[in-house]
Amino acid sequence: MAYGTYVVKRVLLIIPILFGVSVISFGALQLLPGGPVEAAFGTRANAELVEQLREQYGLNRPVYVQYFDWITNIVFDLDFGQSIRTEREISELLTTSLPVTIWVAGAGALVSVVIGIPAGIVSAVNHYEPEDYLATFLAFLGLSIPNFFLGLVLILLFSLYVPLFPSSGFVSPLDDPVQGVRHLALPAITVGTAISAVVMRMMRSSLLEVFSEEYIRTARAKGLSRALVTNKHAVKNALIPTVTVIGLNFGYLLGGVVIVEQIFAIPGLGRLTLTAITTREYRVLQASLLVIAFMFASVNLVTDLVYAYLDPRIKYD
Amino acid sequence: MTEPQTDTTDESSPPPGAALLSTGRRIFAESRLALLGLAITLGVVVTAILAPVVAPYDPTAQNIAEAQLLAPSLTHPMGTDQLGRDVFSRVLYGAQLSLQVGLIAVGVAIAAGVPLGLIAGFYGGYIDETVMRSMDVLFSFPAILLAIAMVAILGQSTLNVMLAIGITYTPIFARVTRSGVLSVREETFVDAARAIGDTNRSIIARDILPNVVAPIIVQATVSLAFAILAESALSFLGLGTPPPDPSWGRMLSNSRNFLQTAPWTAVFPGLAIMITILGFNFLGDGLRDTLDPQNETEEGGSI
Amino acid sequence: MTLLNVSGLKTEFRTDEGVVQAVNGVDIQVEAGETVGIVGESGSGKSVTALSMLGLVDSPGHVTAGSVEFGGEELRTASESRLQDIRGNDIGTVFQDPMESLNPVLTVGEQIAEVTRSHGRFEGENIDWLEESLLGNFVPRRSARKRHPESWDHAVEMMRQVGIPEPEQRAREYPHQFSGGMQQRAMIAMALACEPDLLIADEPTTALDVTIEAQILNRLSELQADHDMGMLLITHDLGVVVETCDKVAVMYAGQLVETGTVEEVFRDPAHPYTRRLLAAIPDASRRGGRLEAIEGNVPDLVDMPDACYFAPRCPHAHDACYEAVPTQRDVSGTQQARCVLHDDHRSLPWDTDGDTTDIAANNGDSQ
Question: Closest Cα partner for C365 from C343, C342, C349?
């Protein structure tokens, strides 16, 4: 089908998924004993105050009414409600934390590409030789090292023993490029390492496949240099599935971001979510879960679209 | 015409045990990686089983007065932590915990995911759509967050951690099973079975399931690695096994305050996690080369 | 000087089952302006022969013996960079399956222009470092047409010459947007872009319809005549050989079993294999009879015996055939056959006075 129709169709598919997510995240939290108000105040609250707050937040209404209310507020007003504990607008919390997480995730993805793609190429070009074994072994290592462990080791080495990078905090690179990058460096490496292993392996295997294709033989028969054949003819084809692998692994990237935000005390969406869980701030939790799911679905969508765009066989009919 | 060379999933005469043994032998002969993985994995299993026998100290015994944050020595090969507990003993017992949680979590995932995948793949149509869309919804959460959310809902306990991780990995098993079913469903022997009147249920059980077993085994091995990782991660975040049970992840979390002064409290549990996961990854990869050449399994990435 | 002079070429593949002798002592000469055909069934080693000449055989294959002289220069000892100079520039190659042989993510124009750019045909339009590097995949650049206009125009002109309609538009498209016939024409354009002295065409029309095939072959002949190009045409289709070739070499199990001019070989095939090949062609004038297949199978190329390779399937085999691998015997004029029957020209087990107005006439082998 034409590219435009494909785009529209894929975008529309997000809606039922988000719907499902919203129902689940709303519904699941309703199952909890007590309610958000009780949880927010624990046992200290007196019954009267609790009852008053419950009225105020409309928590005595039937579940489906509450859901409907919540969902329509989000869809039409982008109003996610208020945090019971701090009385701040949840949408404000989201708008401050979301960009931070995007920075960390983006930096991690960048690291994974910068390490993974060249490593995969070296491996494939030298396959079954020492470089290949070394790179594959390192890839295994990268996949197996838990990112929280890696983060701690990096802090130990490059922040405590050798004070090169800060061990916590976030500065937006838009505000201060140097400090921003310094603060992002260790988190990005922590997040990106495991993904770079996946990228490297994908690049290697798809490049090896491409090398056995006939158009590579044609390229060589044309007298093109080895470098040109590899980097222009082969890599370009192998990049397509590799790029999509990054998109597919976005979930794992995000999981890593959550952990990294904890370790490096970065005020992002992951940290917000975790705090919401431990302080039992259910409204915040609902909202952030929904945003995360939306991010996730969008990345999947963008990945599909990029794939279709990169491959001329799909793009041009 | 030469004999077609396929793998030896022989459904007809020789008993399954014999085929399994020969396949097993073949796997480990061909792949040194799998062999290494098997060695490491067995090492971890043995450690877990023998922990009570080998561990020099009670892993929960505190000794703040005399033994706080001691560097590794002959009496404490891996040092002690901030409460005076012997790190070596805790690492040994941690193997037990990790394996337990991992195995049960994967067990849950298989018990839930495989039937779903079988049904979706076999019946197709509406059922397939419904099942796979629900799986997609689950997929639309990063695994770790899903697990975290579930622990938050269910409450913090080892059992809930197992359940949470298990549910998180259910979609992967559903998918792998489903694609295995799809690739076998159109084979002629299924038509043959239908032609002689086998019921759907028996077709699934007798004809399709054996062919789907191989990728499931590979996926199970790979997922086991990540289930252990997930448990560690949850414990690291304070949501996993409650103290004082020794969990590698929690040990790492506790070490954060003493990172510079007592790095051994972080290094040893971290290495333990890493080696265990490496072992399972090697094993899974080696198994995959032989059992699942079409690569229907998914790289369940980190956490 | 002979344009291409191949002698004693041997190529083997080391596999788990043993060493496969894919090319087993092949001698071929091609003069400028001449078309030589290599004919054989699949598995006879014809494609590997072509690749071996170009130095494009990859592990587990190795060229183990022989010499490949092109314009007097020995290619087997040439450096890789010298070979790269020659490939695409002095020797053009057309491969069998055009859909698979064209890079799906590059435009057709780009792929043709690359050839001239790689060999420095146009001032200042060579391949640059960025294009050869990994980074080149990520850095956006101006369109090919703008960066190297002369090469582009030349590519378009080549496409016009091979008969692709609306070449300016087509050059900007991708291979999958072309039909099979057009793809093959594009491949020919690519092979001829630098006006090579020799064209190696490996089954250039096998994947195409018969009508397209005729057009392509005609076009090839025209272009060949224009450039006084030598052509080595590899095919399993005897009809194509008769139509286009001056000389022919018949290949079986990695060896040449018969060589000669097309007239010689087709009028009076000297090797039993050639005779059976010709007899096997279905002939409309003999309707109702059985198809004349050749009994037996092509031998497994591992551990070949020290005897005539075709003997097991040959209707005229006798003891002398199993003594050693037969050498090429002279038959007449320039015709040679690898068969002991030709030690004694007087008594051949078939008639030699048949005339041929059609190819399959010589099927009078007495059993």
Answer: C349
Cβ of C78 under 8 Å from any chain A Cβ?
no
Question: Which pairing describes strands C329-332 and C335-337: parallel, antiparallel, or unpaired?
Answer: antiparallel
Token digits of residue A32: 């909890």
Q: Say if the Cβ atoms of C134 and A221 lie within 8 Å.
A: no
Give the B window 176-205 contacts with A, CB below 8 Å: none
Token representation of residue A84: 């019971």
Each residue's pLDDT tens digit, B47-76:
888 888 878 888 777 777 777 788 888 878
Q: Which residue in C33, C12, C55 sits closest to C223, CA to CA?
A: C33
- Cross-chain CB nearest to B301 (options A252, A262, A293): A252
Could you give the CA distance from residue C57 to residue C364 in angstroms, rounded to a whole number? 41
| pLDDT value of residue C74 | 92
Average pLDDT, chain A: 83
Determine the residue among A220, A230, A313, A316 to mutate to test chain C binding: the one whose Cβ has the most chain C Cβ atoms within 10 Å. Answer: A220
Q: What is the tens place of the pLDDT at every residue in B80-125?
A: 888 888 888 888 888 988 899 999 999 999 999 988 888 888 787 8
Q: How close are the terminal C-alpha atoms of chain A, in Å?
A: 7
> Which residues are C231's β-sheet partners?
C35, C199
Q: What is the mean pLDDT of residues B220-249?
A: 86
Query: What is the token pair recorded at B248?
Result: 């590698």
Please state, in angstroms and rounded to a whole number, the distance separating the CA atoms of residues B176 and B121.
10
- pLDDT tens digits for range C259-317: 999 988 888 888 888 888 887 777 666 666 666 677 777 777 777 888 888 888 888 88
- C206 in reach of chain A (CB within 8 A): no
**Cβ–Cβ < 8 Å for C325, C313:** no
Mean pLDDT to the nearest integer, C152-160? 93
- CA gap C87, A95 in Å, rounded: 59
A144/B229 Cα distance (integer angstroms): 9
Q: What is the pTM of this model?
A: 0.79
C103 with A313: Cβ contact below 8 A? no
Q: Is it the case that residue A234 has pLDDT exceeding 90?
A: yes
φ, ψ (nearest 5 deg) of residue B214: -60, -55
Whether B229 has its CB under 8 Å from any CB of chain A: the answer is yes
> Residue with structure tokens 């419904």?
B130
Residue B14 C-alpha, separation from nearest chain A C-alpha, in angstroms = 36
* Closest chain A residue to the Cα of C132, Cα to Cα: A228
CB pairs under 8 A between A and B: 140
The minimum CA-CA distance between C124 and chain A, rounded to whole Å, is 17
Chains with 3+ CB–CB pairs under 8 A to C are A
At C241-252, the pLDDT tens digits run 988 899 999 998
Q: What are phi and psi of A263, to 5 degrees?
A: -65, -45
Rounded to an integer, what distance in angstroms lies between the CA atom of residue B103 and that of residue C11? Answer: 54
Q: What is the secondary structure of chain A as a DSSP string? A: --HHHHHHHHHHHHHHHHHHHHHHHHHHHHTSSS-HHHHHHTTSS-HHHHHHHHHHTTTTS-HHHHHHHHHHIIIII----B-TTT--BHHHHHHHHHHHHHHHHHHHHHHHHHHHHHHHHHHHHTTTSHHHHHHHHHHHHHHHS-HHHHHHHHHIIIIIIS--S-SS----TTT-HHHHHHHHHHHHHHHHHHHHHHHHHHHHHHHHHHHTSHHHHHHHHTT--HHHIIIIIIHHHHHHHHHHHHHHTHHHHHHHHHHHHHHTT--SHHHHHHHHHHTT-HHHHHHHHHHHHHHHHHHHHHHHHHHHHH-HHHH--
**Among chain A residues, CA nearest to B255:** A152
- Please count the CA atoms within 13 angstroms of the CA of A15 that sit on its side-chain side: 5
Of B139, B273, B281, the CB nearest to A146: B273
Contact yes or no for C126/C120 (Cβ under 8 A):
yes
| Contact (Cβ atoms closer than 8 angstroms) between residue C145 and residue C152 | yes
